Amino acid sequence: MKPSAEPRTPTPVKIIIAGGFGVGKTTAVASISETTPLRTEAAITTASEDVDRTAHVPDKTTTTVALDFGCITVDDDIKLYLFGTPGQDRFGFMWRDLVLGALGALVIVDTRRMDDCYPAVDYFEKTGLPFVVAVNLFEGRLSHAVEDIRWALAIGDHVPLVTFDARVKVSVRDALLTVLRTTLERVTAR
Amino acid sequence: MPDPDVSLLRPYLLTSGRTEPIDRDLEIETQVLTSELGAASHASLSFERRDIVALCTKTMSVAEIAAILGLHIGVARVLVADLAALRYVVVRRPAAGLASDPAMIERIIRRLEAIS
Ligand SMILES: Nc1nc2c(ncn2[C@@H]2O[C@H](COP(=O)(O)OP(=O)(O)OP(=O)(O)O)[C@@H](O)[C@H]2O)c(=O)[nH]1
Ligand SMILES: [Mg+2]
Question: Which PANTHER family does the UniProt entry name for this protein (chain A) (predicted)?
Fold first, then answer.
């Protein structure tokens, strides 16, 4: 076995793709990834978060969540990773890890089940990670006015809201570009 | 697929001989490449550690290692950190501050704009 002669190790960067169940996270990652998207599992031990001091034995439950990911090679030095993950309150533990150092996030919303994205929106608002809300157009058209969606999600004007189709590469590309431009605006405004 | 119970326990059992404390906060996008030492020591390693050293003759992320070897991401993180402490693999972690570097963000924007 030989290691590669001239190790080229790009620096990784990442964008998080979040949202409720079945909103199109896996589809979005698959549409734009240059490699076949992979899936891995993370075990989340909920007891590590809040230890019940009155209990002799901590009540540990382990949940497994799927994490989809794909990548886009930017150049020899930079590799962009896309991580798709369900946004749930109880996954907070993994989220901290996942989100640290991210460029930004895309929160996918299905307008038929808008509540599902609250935890993700809430989390990114709190942590200050630049994010964009992307409404996945399952029916091909918007069933609510954009301003109504904005109001329903309680997101401010500083959060861009776009519509997209998770199955279409250029549509996912545009949504990600909105994320990156939001991040760029944020860092240059400082 | 490795036995899930065994793969969850093993990394914690294998850490006794390590030379540096394990950094369990290794980011999952961290790039991993087998070192010459790792390649030379391949035969002396066991199970998942050997698999990781064999796999990473080509650079890949911790997340990819987990997916390809069917390991939980947390286990892969610990194993890679452990192998890195032993210098069997070299890791490239995300650079601090890179996510807020405008020039870098612009590079990624240009790359995405070229996608059709
Ligand atoms: N019509 C339509 N269907 C879509 C679109 N995006 C995703 N789907 C379909 O919706 C279903 C769910 O999409 P996924 O990408 O698996 O959603 P997910 O968010 O990864 O789901 P979980 O991982 O289960 O939380 C799949 O059957 C997709 O083919 C879209 O834009 N339009
Ligand atoms: Mg999915």
Answer: ATP/GTP-BINDING PROTEIN-RELATED, GLIDING MOTILITY PROTEIN MGLA
Protein residue with least CA distance to atom 13, ligand 1: A24
Q: How far apart are CA A166 and CA A147, in angstroms?
A: 21
d(CA A18, CA A45): 20
Quick check: B99 and A80 CB within 8 A? no
Which of A4, A40, A98 is the closest to B66 by Cβ? A40
- Give the total number of structural domains in chain A: 1
Question: Is residue A15 included in any domain, yes or no?
Answer: yes
Let me know if residue A29 belongs to a domain. Answer: yes
Asked, for residue A4, whether it belongs to a domain, the answer is no
Structure confidence by residue, pLDDT tens digits, A31-46: 999 999 998 887 665 5
ipTM computed for the complex: 0.85
User: B29 C-alpha vs ligand 1 centroid, how far in Å?
Assistant: 24
pTM assigned to the model: 0.84
A136 CA: nearest ligand 1 atom: 31
Residue A2 lies inside a defined structural domain of this protein: no
Q: Edge to edge, what strands does the sheet with A131-136 contain?
A: A38-45, A62-73, A78-86, A11-19, A104-109, A131-136, A161-164
